[in-house]
Amino acid sequence: MPSIVKQTYIALKKTATSRIFKIKKMFGLFKKKSPVEKLQEKHKKILEQAFQLSKSDRSASDKLYAEAAEIEKEISRHS
User: Which residues have a Cβ under 8 Å from the Cβ of 41 and sit 6 or more positions away?
Assistant: First the structure.
């Protein structure tokens, strides 16, 4: 392939794939989350809170880490 044709082909391919990705992302907004996905999201939030609290209140942080461990067990039961 001549270089100009090749460059044009690559540019068109990138544009097409980015449009497809945007469409998939847009329709992903309406997808309902499974119970496992909800638990994973909750687990992540609790771990973030526990990390922030670990800097100031260690006992509260430990309670949140224990709660996160319980959620991990629930996730493993569902999987």
Answer: 33
